[in-house]
Structures are given as C-alpha cells and as structure tokens.
Write a structure and sequence with these properties.
Blueprint lengths: L6 E5 L5 H5 L8 E6 L3 H6 L4 H4 L8 E5 L2 H7 L4 E6 L15 H9 L1 E12 L5 H14 L4 E7 L2 E9 L6 E2 H9 L4 H9 L5 H5 L2 E4 H8 L11 H7 L7 H9 L9 E2 L3
Parallel strand pairs: 1-2, 1-4, 2-3, 4-5, 8-10
Antiparallel strand pairs: 5-7, 6-7, 6-9
Length: about 260
C-alpha cells in the first residue's frame, strides 16, 4: 500500500519470514532487522531459507542486535515502513512492544507517508486482550485499519496498519503493480497464499476505528506505567476464543467506500 517504499525496519526476526517478504520488492533499498537475541537471525532464520528468501544473506540487510524499544528510541533514522512482529504479549517483557508509548516512538520514526504494521494474535487471547491491543494502537494511529486472516474459517490473527493521514487505496493502481514485470516474484509469493490480485489482498480488510469505537470502549489502554496487557494475555495462555472475537470485529465491518477507489 506504500507507493514507493525504500527502507523498512522489522522488529523481531523469528524465522525471518516477515523480513523476507521485503526482499522481493524491487524498490526496497534498506532492510533493518532488530532482534535482541543474536542466535535468532544467525541460526534460526537459516533453517527457513526457502520461506524467508534467504533474507539474512541479502546485501540490503542490516541486523541490529538490540532491544527494540532502545533502538527505536535512540536511532535517528526514519523509515518508510515499520513492521512490528514480536512474540505474544504474555511473554515477559514483550508487552512493552504493544504499549501506547511504543507506538508513539514508531510514529516518530516514520518518514512522510510512512506506514507501520503491528501483529495482533487472535489465538491464545480473548476479547479483552484483543480490545486492549487494538484500542492502544488506535490512540496513536486513529486512521488505522485492521487486516485479518483465518485458519480454515477460524479467526487466527490480524495485522493493524497505521499511518499519520487517512488511508486511500487506488485499487486499479495496486492491480497494475501486481502485473508489472518487476513484481513477478511478489505476485507469485502472494498467489501461493491465495492473495494473487489486488481484490484478493484487499478482501482481508476487517475494519477500522470508526466502526469499532463502541466495541473498543471498555478496552484497557496498555501503557508503560502498568503494562496491564501482559497480565490480561497471561490469563488466556490456552484460550481458544479468537474465533468469537474475530466474528465480533467482522460483524461491525462495513464496506469502506471512502477507503477503496476503483473503476467498475
């Protein structure tokens, strides 16, 4: 959805799959991966070279071994894209990567027109956990949107997308990008996921703040001073309520005529 991204920051390496998606995009010139544990990029990611497009060996990649909060708070660099894909918020210390203050830091590190995404798992969570994560994000990115997937019809996880200004998606321009020769590998990768066209990709739209404002009213905002989310999530370690929460979100979704612009 960014017209011409050149730089990206990925918070958390894991198997490198999220980082590896950016290898395919021809406009990307710089990929910064921040991970607190050196063994993750060096060892774990090497076992998933097919899935992550061997991202660790890509010459555009710089790996920063640091706590993500420290790196984002102290770097002077700004990025076109920031994608935050940390571990579950019930894991000790990770709730700081879901706090209002953290999202404010991310916003400060965006270039004009930049986008930030945040992973929100629906599994091992209940309504209160998901509401806290989404509501906290929307306090910093009120124009944010939610994009979701499912596992054989069951709610699995979501990605929140935020930016400073209201989002506008030119569907025809997006489809033209899909069809460009230099996006052949991007299209192939998305086709493997059943998202091989602009319409397929945009069909994952699940809602936005204006639709969910009432539903989010009871949410506890996750702030550095209390990190309440860590404990809310910890109580749902073996929960299987994500499907119900996903259904509640989708039940409030309306067609965003002002968000998507397309020819007949």
């Amino acid at each position: 959805l960014h017209p011409n991204p050149k730089s990206v920051l990925i918070v958390g390496c894991g198997a490198g799959v999220t980082s590896g998606t950016f290898v395919l995009h021809p406009s990307i010139e710089r990929i910064v991966i921040c991970d607190i544990e050196p063994l993750i990029p060096q060892v774990v990611a090497s076992h998933f070279r097919l899935e992550n497009h061997d991202v660790i060996r890509d010459p555009r990649v710089q790996i920063v071994y640091d706590d993500a909060r420290h790196f984002i708070a102290t770097t002077r660099e700004k990025f076109d894209l920031i994608t935050s894909d940390p571990i579950h918020p019930w894991v000790k210390g990770s709730a700081v990567l879901y706090s209002q203050e953290y999202f404010e830091l991310c916003r400060q590190r965006l270039k004009p027109g930049g986008l930030v995404t945040q992973w929100v798992p629906l599994y091992e969570a209940d309504r209160a956990v998901v509401q806290s994560e989404i509501a906290t994000f929307f306090t910093v990115f009120p124009h944010g949107t939610i994009w979701a997937n499912d596992d054989e019809g069951f709610g699995y996880d979501t990605v929140m997308l935020g930016q400073a200004e209201p989002l506008a998606v030119d569907v025809d321009a997006l489809q033209q990008r899909f069809e460009r020769a230099d996006h052949r590998t991007v299209r192939a990768a998305l086709t493997d996921l059943g998202l091989g066209s602009a319409v397929d990709l945009l069909s994952t739209y699940a809602g936005r703040f204006s639709e969910l404002k009432t539903w989010l009213a009871p949410a506890e905002i996750n702030r550095d001073r209390n990190l309440r989310l860590q404990y809310l999530a910890g109580l749902q370690l073996d929960s299987n309520k994500g499907t119900d929460t996903y259904a509640e979100i989708l039940g409030r979704r309306t067609f965003p005529g002002d968000l998507f612009k397309a020819s007949p």
